[in-house]
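hiii so um. not sure if this is the right channel but i have a protein structure encoded as tokens and i wanna go backwards to a sequence. like what aa goes where. can anyone help
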């Protein structure tokens, strides 16, 4: 790899080692007979002082200090960016992921640096340029056995975030956690409460978008007690039975729906995971009245707690709130347009994908093709390009204000009030019922009737 070659060219022999997930993935690729795709370039350089390292790296690109206390340098070259560090040792001083005393020094043995890693499969290095694998803790054997094992018994106590990483890796790689690792997670599960919302969100996003079956990770969290600490809202669904439309309880239905949702879409997978989160709190016999609205509120609180972006929160909540839409292919044209309005044209594909995942997650044979016929009608209506929002009207607020002044309904210089919005809503309803009325003069005539108090036909 060109970046390896560039770095090796300016460093003394036998001092450069590639580390991190790249080495794990290289070993996986060799074992599984597939191509490796390197995304992150992380290196450790031994036996070279910090000042000397910085000067040498400066010969091939721009160098920035990104971890002053951790002795990490980021070098930007024509062949990409790399994080280059001195060997480090660390000592835990608390339960938060930053509660460590970290020392970086050229004389620290590489094996001690690798011991800082979370799992044995991540504690390997490769000498550059020789390619020799450095594996002091048996990481290659774990990859070959498709297992995840901690290096230290106190791994999760020292950094509780590692429990989420264990679940994420298990789902993403389809590896099994060793009994030792599972037991350590059970013991440390209460400490997961100390992990910041942002870090939880980061691991959750990886689990949802990098694992084909993220349910594997969530089941590990459930079995070890981590779920009830980090995602208590989801844990409420465990054992909550449903009606004849579902083969699973709320919890397992959520997981089956999640697995059925498209992997590449974080928002859609969040919506799939949370679409029925309100059911346990709304259960009345075999019914769950307004669970989608309660669930939307719960989803908003959960995602806000994890500090997801406003855009992700808003779109996910909208999908949860509207997932019970009536997908009736026999709806009238006007009712169909109202449904499209409520969902929003921009959210239609995701909303339909969520319904398809929801059906697949029921655990029962598919019943009929009503959803498909409904979707086909929706897309036909969208293609006709009627007005699906007030912004699509052939008139706007300025036209309403001008008409109000001209009719004497408002004084000169009037800048608008709620009556403007009310008038636009009346016109929008007209266009929803009669799309052909979305023509400027027709709407101005209807507006005139509305302002004069006459019934708009």
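sure thing!! here u go:
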């Amino acid at each position: 790899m060109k970046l390896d070659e560039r770095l090796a060219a300016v460093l003394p022999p036998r001092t450069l080692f590639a580390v991190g997930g790249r080495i794990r993935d290289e070993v996986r690729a060799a074992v599984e007979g597939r191509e490796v795709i390197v995304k992150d370039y992380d290196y450790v350089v031994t036996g070279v002082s910090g000042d000397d390292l910085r000067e040498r790296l400066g010969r091939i690109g721009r160098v920035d200090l990104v971890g002053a206390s951790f002795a990490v340098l980021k070098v930007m070259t024509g062949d990409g960016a790399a994080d280059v560090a001195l060997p480090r040792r660390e000592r835990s001083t608390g339960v938060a992921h930053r509660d460590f005393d970290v020392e970086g020094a050229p004389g620290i043995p590489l094996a001690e640096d690798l011991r800082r890693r979370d799992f044995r499969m991540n504690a390997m290095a490769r000498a550059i340029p020789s390619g020799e694998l450095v594996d002091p803790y048996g990481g290659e054997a774990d990859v070959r056995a498709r297992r995840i094992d901690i290096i230290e018994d106190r791994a999760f106590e020292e950094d509780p975030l590692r429990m989420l990483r264990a679940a994420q890796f298990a789902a993403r790689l389809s590896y099994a956690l060793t009994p030792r690792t599972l037991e350590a997670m059970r013991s440390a599960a209460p400490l997961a409460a100390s992990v910041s919302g942002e870090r939880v969100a980061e691991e959750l996003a990886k689990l949802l978008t990098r694992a084909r079956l993220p349910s594997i990770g969530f089941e590990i969290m459930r079995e070890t007690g981590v779920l009830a600490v980090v995602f208590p809202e989801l844990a409420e669904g465990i054992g909550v039975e449903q009606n004849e439309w579902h083969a699973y309880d709320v919890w397992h239905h959520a997981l089956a729906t999640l697995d059925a949702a498209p992997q590449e879409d974080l928002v859609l997978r969040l919506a799939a995971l949370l679409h029925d989160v309100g059911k346990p709190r709304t259960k009345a016999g075999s019914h769950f009245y307004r669970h989608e609205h309660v669930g939307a509120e719960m989803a908003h609180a959960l995602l806000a707690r994890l500090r997801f972006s406003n855009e992700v929160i808003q779109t996910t909540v909208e999908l949860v709130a509207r997932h019970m839409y009536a997908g009736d292919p026999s709806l009238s044209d006007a009712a169909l347009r109202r449904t499209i309005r409520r969902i929003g044209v921009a959210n239609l594909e995701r909303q339909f994908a969520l319904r398809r995942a929801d059906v697949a997650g029921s655990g029962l044979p598919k019943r009929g093709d009503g959803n498909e016929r409904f979707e086909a009608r929706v897309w036909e209506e969208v293609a006709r390009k009627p007005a699906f929002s007030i912004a699509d009207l052939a008139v706007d607020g300025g036209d309403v204000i001008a008409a109000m002044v001209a009719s004497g309904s408002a004084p000169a210089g009037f800048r608008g009030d709620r009556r403007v919005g009310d008038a636009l809503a009346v016109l929008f309803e007209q266009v929803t019922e009669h799309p052909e009325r979305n023509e400027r003069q027709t709407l101005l005539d209807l507006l005139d009737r509305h302002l004069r108090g006459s019934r708009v036909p």
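oh and Residues 418-433 form the longest helix (16 residues).
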